[in-house]
Amino acid sequence: MPVAIQAGLWGLLSGSALLLGALVGWYARLPQRLIAAIMAFGAGVLISALSFELMDEAWKQGGFLPVAGGFLSGATIYTAANWVLAHRGARHRKRSGASGKRDQQAAEHPNNGLALALGALLDGIPESIVIGVSLIQGGAVGVVAVIAVFLSNLPEGLSSAAGLKQEGKSAAYNFGLWTGIALISGAAAAIGYVAFAGVDPGVVAFVQAVAAGAILAMIVDTMVPEASEGTHDFAGLISVSGFLVAFALSKLG
């Protein structure tokens, strides 16, 4: 099987966690605290993955300048795009709505469907590209990266679906959104491999650092608020647990 197709399938697998989470969030009435705890765990997993699977590997390939430039660029690009979408109704896209912030968002932006969809893409595409790029080295996927993205996508789909349901969005809209994002995640992973296979290692390092910067900005801007609000004093401990699990998988793998 061509490596690009493998990359696409791995990206689709990690993206499918969005749909799985959406199914649970739509049909099961999970406590707000549990949703927030899953979000905190996923944040810890992603922080570990971007530290050891992205930044460390990028440093080995390109050194300080590509890594620093890419990291800051990724965070800046994500922050600018997220600011635009936040002012169009996608600020609380990862919240499940118990705090009332989703209600306020829906009242201010009743036609925010496109902003929510673009926000989900903004969050997911850097993660998917990372999966594709990970196959460039030796043709083997970064398993920890796939697991980290899968575990972080699960609470995103769960929390967002619960919030969409509270806003009055239809089931067709909800599942159509997450199915589309999962498919685009697979395509982004394939593109990540095709676009950067054979290019200079410094360029690959820069791309990895861009993704890492975007992911870290996403964690702080969208995942941490939901996690902290729902779990209060336990958010840090749960996030540390997620970090440890991903760190162990990275080293044992």
SS class: mainly alpha
Helix tally?
Answer: 9
Amino- and carboxy-terminal Cα gap: 24 Å
Helix content: over 70%
Radius of gyration: 17 Å
Name the quaternary structure: single chain
Low confidence ranges = none
Query: Using DSSP, what is the number of strands?
Result: 0
The overall number of domains is 1
Shape category:
globular
| Element pattern in H and E | HHHHHHHHH
**How much of the polypeptide forms β-strand, as a percent range?**
under 5%
What is the makeup of the main sheet? none
Mean of residue pLDDT? 81
Provide an overview of this structure:
84% of the residues lie in helices and 0% in strands. Helix 1 packs parallel to helix 6 (143-167). With 253 residues, the protein is mainly α. It is globular and about 50 Å long. The longest helix is centred in the N-terminal third of the chain and has 31 residues, at 32-62. The protein has nine helices and no strands. The model has no long low-confidence stretch (mean pLDDT 81). The chain has one domain (3-252).
